[in-house]
Write a structure and sequence with these properties.
Layout: H1 11-28, H2 30-39, H3 51-54, E1 63-67, E2 70-73, E3 78-81, H4 84-87, H5 96-109, H6 118-130, E4 134-138, H7 141-156, E5 160-164, E6 177-180, E7 183-186, H8 193-196, E8 199-202, H9 207-214, E9 219-224, H10 240-250, E10 254-258, H11 269-274, E11 280-283, E12 294-298, H12 300-308, H13 329-342, H14 345-368, E13 374-378, E14 381-385, H15 394-398, H16 403-414, E15 418-419, H17 435-452
Parallel strand pairs: 3-15, 5-8, 5-9, 9-10, 10-11
Antiparallel strand pairs: 1-2, 2-3, 4-12, 6-7, 11-12, 13-14
Helix pairs in contact: 1-16, 5-13, 6-13, 9-10, 14-17
The structure holds pyridoxal-5'-phosphate (PLP).
Pyridoxal-5'-phosphate is lined by residues 86, 140-142, 145, 168-170, 225, 230, 258, 260-261, 284-285.
């Protein structure tokens, strides 16, 4: 990501704050650093999964446990979490209904490779909330999107996938791509340059660009988040998603709305609240429970195709979906408990009000410091828009992804007991946060701004 410059940031002040805060961070996380040095001998970068080291420009810390919106590190520091594991932990740490349901499931049999009774509760409830009738489980949103792409390719007998600049749909070769003068190319190392060419990338909120791509009549699937959440926040223009649906139907492509993040912005997700029409919906990140599972919903027409083309182990071979640990008793128990006890209309009302409080607090701080900036706001999600207008596409959003500003803020906040969002996101309210957590975050953010803006 580039590091664009907001005129209002004093770069020298930012650099000296970063230097000071990095030193303080290292001093207060000595045990974590010693552990990581040892761990580097048995795990690349000292972490069990590379992103844990690649997501921040400061060293990692070692987590020891958590409760509600807080977690602790090896040195005994406590952090109020506004990253919430990039939306995989929006229920908070140790959420009772989840802990109880998952413990019961593990005790009675974590998995049977057979359906369990609660699966029908979960899928009926999702059908009611989201509006798509049929559902399948996977282990991750990446895997859900992979299956959606395969099904769409089979149904349309086409190969190409239409994605949008600023997108992220998981660790899939088709999605880890970027536009270049020579067409679509991989954006990360180790993915297939050939598969990258199966993806077409156009700007979000531009129906003409989408139509120009669809006109080639070779797109199997159009896939987008209903609001882009992986380049801060880009909202769809009024009518844009309906237009995309109409265009995908006109040119024979299927449409997937990826709600791996946005399902947690509103009851029923943005598809359910906006009554958005589509062929697939992806849900992910264990619905915020912290348990590894994801789901995708589909229309009855798509489900009919799945049923007709079931993959039989001894043949005939069918649609390439599924995995040995998908749809486990644990995943289904977590999903049911989340839907019944946490992801309730009242729960969403509460985090929406807290999200508003966070955005209002940040905007008041911007004003106090004479900044013409805006605070992103969508349900529980907020963030720093370093411009007077909200972005309408990824190119504009990137101007607010000022990595020097974000990285310095992260360390400053960590030293004051707040675990801030990763660079591409924004602080997110969890179901476990209290109003005082929000107010304290804003107070510290205000203190940070006081040191680095002019
Ligand atoms: C919109 C969206 N889809 C899919 C994914 C992939 O999720 P996972 O990494 O859990 O497979 C992400 C991850 O951030 C995402 O933001």
């Amino acid at each position: 990501m580039s590091a664009p410059a907001s005129d209002h940031i004093d770069r020298a002040a930012l650099a000296s704050l970063r230097f000071r805060e990095d030193a303080a961070f290292k001093a207060r996380t000595r045990k974590s650093q010693a552990w990581l040095a040892r761990a580097g001998k048995s795990m690349p970068n000292g972490v069990p999964m590379a992103w844990m080291a690649g997501l921040f420009r400061h060293n990692s810390i070692v987590a020891t446990g958590g409760a509600g919106p807080h977690f602790n590190d090896l040195d005994g520091n406590t952090y109020c979490d506004f990253n919430v594991c990039d939306l995989a932990m929006t229920m908070g740490y140790g959420a009772k209904p989840i802990a109880e349901a998952v413990s019961r499931a593990v005790t009675s049999g974590a998995h049977f490779l057979l359906p369990v009774e609660d699966a029908v509760f979960v899928t009926e409830e999702l059908a009611r909330r989201v509006g798509l009738p049929c559902w399948q489980f996977t282990l991750s949103a990446s895997a859900a999107n992979t299956e959606v792409m395969r099904i769409a390719r089979f149904i349309t007998r086409r190969n190409k996938i239409l994605v949008f600049d600023g997108q992220y749909h998981g660790h899939i070769d088709e999605s880890l791509v970027t536009p270049s003068a020579s067409g679509t190319v991989p954006v990360q190392l180790g993915t297939s340059a050939r598969i990258a060419q199966d993806s077409v990338i156009v700007p979000f909120n531009d129906l003409d660009a989408a139509e120009a791509a669809l006109k080639a009549n070779d797109i199997a699937l159009v896939i987008t988040e209903p609001a882009l959440t992986n380049c801060l926040l880009v909202e769809p223009a009024p009518g844009y998603l309906a237009g995309l649906r109409a265009l995908s139907q006109k040119y024979g492509a299927l449409l997937c709305l990826d709600e791996a993040h946005t399902f947690q912005f509103a009851y029923g997700g943005l598809v359910g609240t906006g009554k958005l029409a589509c062929d697939f919906v992806t849900l992910g990140k264990g619905l915020g429970t912290g348990i590894s599972f994801a789901l995708y919903g589909m229309s009855r027409d798509v489900a009919d195709v799945m049923e007709k083309h079931l993959d039989i182990d001894i043949g005939p071979k069918g649609l390439a979906t599924g995995g040995t640990t998908y749809g486990s008793n644990v995943a289904i128990a977590a999903a049911r408990a989340a839907l019944e006890h946490v992801l309730t209309p009242q729960g969403y009302d509460r985090i929406t009000a807290l999200g508003q409080r966070l955005a209002d607090g940040l905007e008041a701080a911007f004003k106090r410091h004479g900044l013409p900036w805006r605070a992103f706001r969508h349900g529980p999600r907020s963030g720093y828009c370093l411009e007077p207008e909200f972005p309408t596409n990824a190119e504009a959003a990137t101007r607010s992804i000022d990595t020097d500003f974000i990285d310095a803020r992260r360390v400053f906040m960590a030293n004051r007991g707040f675990w801030d969002a990763v660079a591409s996101a924004g602080p997110q309210v969890s179901f476990a946060h209290q109003p005082a957590d929000i107010d304290l975050y804003v107070t510290q953010a205000d203190g940070f701004l006081g040191e680095v803006v002019r």
